[in-house]
Amino acid sequence: MTVADSDFPIDNGASCLPIPPEEEKRIVSELIKKSELNLKEGNLYYVISNRWFSRWQMYVGHCPGMLSTDQQSSDGLHADTVRPGPIDNSDIISNGSNCDGNDLDIHRTLQEETDYVLVPQEVWERLLEWYKGGPELPRKLISQGVGQKQYSIEVYPLSLKVTDARDNSVSIVKLSKKATMSELYELVCKVKGVEQNKACIWDYFNLKKHTLLTASDHQTLEDANMTMDHDILLEVSVDTDRSSHSGVHSIGNELALVPLEPPRSSVSIAGGPTLSNGHSTGSGFNLYQGSSVSSSLTTMDDNYDIYRGERGGLAGLQNLGNTCFMNSALQCLVHTPPLVEFFLQDYNDEINRDNPLGMSGELALAFGDLLRKLWSSGRTAIAPRAFKGKLARFAPQFSGYNQHDSQELLAFLLDGLHEDLNRVKQKPYIEMKDSDNRPDEEVAYECWKNHMARNDSLIVDECQVSACIYHMFLFQSHNR
C-alpha cells in the first residue's frame, strides 16, 4: 500500500531541503549514542517500518538491518543513492484499528529488525523533519524485574476489552502494563463519558466478575495480572455512593463479592489427607488414588470451571497468549510425586525468606499455591495468572505473552525453588581444593559435602548424581 493509498493520517507535505546522506548518517549515529547513555523509564521510542528504514539505510550507505550506523555497508560504492520518500508505516499497521483514545495498533506478529525498527525520540524527530510522513507510533521504555532492573520498550501495550454493563457494548482501550488502576479508571471513564465517582470497574476475566478494581489503588495492571485482550467490566451507579451496589447497572456473577482469601475450612484433596486452611495434616498418601470430592478452596485470582472429577491433578492450564512453554514445564513439575507430596503439606517452615540468592520465598509460595489448586479435585482448567505475574517479576525475560524456551524456564524455576527452600540460612565460604591425584571417590565425596554445606533443599534431595567434580546436573540424562 502506497502512502497515497493509505487510509491513515500521513503528512505528505514537502520535506525540508535535503542534506547530504553522510550528514544524515552522522547526526543519527550521534543521537543514538546519546540516547544509549540516558536510558530511563518513560523515554519514548518510535516504531518505524523496516521496509522504509532499510531504504534509508541504503541511501546513507550502511548495512540494512543494523540500527547502529557505525558499520559501513560492505557494498557502499553501490549503495542506493535514491532518496527515500516520506516515512510510510502503513504496512505494519492493523487495518481497521479502532482503539479509543490511544495510538494505532500494529500487527501482533511483527518481528523487530525484520518488520520494524525502534528509534529514540530524537532520531524520529530528525527523520520526520527531513522526510515527513508517518503515522507516529510512539512506545515507552519500561523497567522490569526486582533488584537488577532490565529495560525494554513496550511495543505492544495491553489492549483491554471494556464491557459496559448498561448496554453490553464493548470498547477497546490500550494502556501500558505499568499503568496504575487510577490511570485505568481515568481512561475508561473518559472514553465512556462517565464520572469517576459513579464508576466501578471489575476484573472480568473469562466474562465472569472477579475482583473489584479500586481507583485509589497504586497497583499496576501488571501486578493485577492483566493480560493482552483482558476483559474488564464497567458498572455505573445511579448515585454517587459507590459503596452501595443496589443502584449499579450490573451483569454477571454477583458471587464476585466473596473475599479473595480461601475460607478457613477443611477441604479434601483427592487421594490425600484432610487439609486445614490449605495445609496438609499428614504425609503418607497415594497421589494417584482419589474419589469425587467437592472443594471450598476457591479464589478469584485464577479462574476455573467446576466439574465432578474422580481425582485431583487432572486440571489443565489455560494459555495466557503463547505460554504453552510455561504450562508444559509446570505440568511436569506439579505431577512429580515428591514435589506434590511436599507442597500439599505445611511447608511454610521450609521457606527461606532471607536468602539473597532467592526470591524471598515468593516464587515457592506462588508455585505451591498453583499446585494446590491443580490438585484440588473438581477443576477442569486454571489460568495461572498469579504465577505468571510472579514469574515475570523475578525473571523479566519471561514477561509478555510470547513463546520462550521451556527448558530455560524449567531451569530458572528449579533454581528459584531451590533457593527459596534452601535450608542453609548462612552460606559458608568454602575454598575448593585440587584433586592432587586423590581417588575419585574421595574427591567426589568432598565436592558433594562442600556443595551440601551451601545447598540443602527439596530440589537437592531429589536431584542427585555421582560425579568426581561438581556440575550443574538438573538436565543431564543420567540424573535420576
TrEMBL record:
Ranges of residues in domain DUSP: 19-142
Coiled coil (UniProt feature): none
Keywords: Hydrolase
Record bears the keyword Hydrolase: yes
Keyword Nucleotide-binding: no
SMART domains: DUSP
Residue ranges constituting the USP domain according to the UniProt record: 315-480
Gene Ontology terms describing biological process: protein deubiquitination
InterPro entries on file: DUSP-like_sf, Papain-like_cys_pep_sf, Pept_C19_DUSP, Peptidase_C19_UCH, Ub_carboxyl-term_hydrolase, USP, USP_CS
Family: Belongs to the peptidase C19 family.
Protein name, UniProt field: Variant 3, Ubiquitin carboxyl-terminal hydrolase 9
Organism: Pisum sativum
